[in-house]
């Protein structure tokens, strides 16, 4: 096959490209330039996509012996991933930019351009497995549980999975990948992992939001509406947050308070005790289902995960039927045995059966049985 290898400049994508060559594919390496001022995108191990990273990717391609190009996708990245990030926070939601990057950049813009150029597939350094079963391709968790990225890949859906290759799917640890890179003479073998949000290289998400959205002073209130403090913008808060609340007086019982709700229309942040964060019902919109998923609207047993590295919990799940209260493209989740804490609108809820990804949706609401919905935000 003709394979386009996405090369970020890190060790994972470099080894993935080398393994694709070893598997007999005709491979071309591409580094995606995602920022118009690329030198700002790395501070130590934070961020990615800097000039340094492009150089590291080029050197890796030279060692592997494959052609290498840099594609400028900065405008598309700004218009989709960064714009979505700002709009979601402004709407009182908590987005996952890695999910949106996989959706709009790696497995839309990059894959579509690769297909137009005659490539059969795109290879990336993600930690996930593709399993062939009954004539269909399934997305599964990686055996490397610490690095598993099936959660952020679930948004790609079955059609794009058909044209994706994850050569690191069989590796059980990052140490194995680094050893593979060292054995192949790749200089990135000891390069630190990038983390946090790539376009917030200094890690100050609140500062980034303030610079882009401006100061919007408002109130912090308790569940009874009593004013406890002030903020510079409700967009800077997320459900479940404890630190940085700047509340003027402690709770009567002395216990810490957490963000329970962000109300952008009123520019207000509601705080309260930890027990009010627990939910056992989740609704989601914009669902993506993989081949073999039960989308008939009947309930089925599964596990769900609401954070990239969160623990999966047992659940009863159904795809929304057209006459349901949730959107026709949505999902409804009930947690019979264990409640989740701090589920925020805008997060991804991913449905698993064992290691297999069944589907994904964007959280639109969460509540506890016998109580009013704690969060109910319009779908994206």
From TrEMBL:
tRNA-specific 2-thiouridylase MnmA-like C-terminal domain boundaries: 280-363
InterPro entries assigned: MnmA-like, MnmA-like_C, MnmA-like_central, MnmA-like_central_sf, Rossmann-like_a/b/a_fold
Gene3D superfamilies: Adenine nucleotide alpha hydrolases-like domains, HUPs, Translation factors
Recorded GO MF terms: ATP binding; tRNA binding; tRNA-uridine 2-sulfurtransferase activity
Site (Interaction with tRNA): residue numbering on this chain: 126, 347
Intracellular or extracellular location(s): Cytoplasm
Catalytic activity: S-sulfanyl-L-cysteinyl-[protein] + uridine(34) in tRNA + AH2 + ATP = 2-thiouridine(34) in tRNA + L-cysteinyl-[protein] + A + AMP + diphosphate + H(+)
Annotated region (Interaction with tRNA), positions in chain: 147-149
Active site: 101 (nucleophile), 198 (cysteine persulfide intermediate)
Top EC class for this record: transferase
Domain of life: Bacteria
Disulfide bonds: 101-198
Pfam families registered for this protein in UniProt: tRNA_Me_trans, tRNA_Me_trans_C, tRNA_Me_trans_M
Function comment: Catalyzes the 2-thiolation of uridine at the wobble position (U34) of tRNA, leading to the formation of s(2)U34.
PANTHER family cross-referenced by the UniProt entry: MITOCHONDRIAL TRNA-SPECIFIC 2-THIOURIDYLASE 1, TRNA 5-METHYLAMINOMETHYL-2-THIOURIDYLATE -METHYLTRANSFERASE
Family: Belongs to the MnmA/TRMU family.
Official protein name in the record: tRNA-specific 2-thiouridylase MnmA
Species annotation: Luteimicrobium xylanilyticum
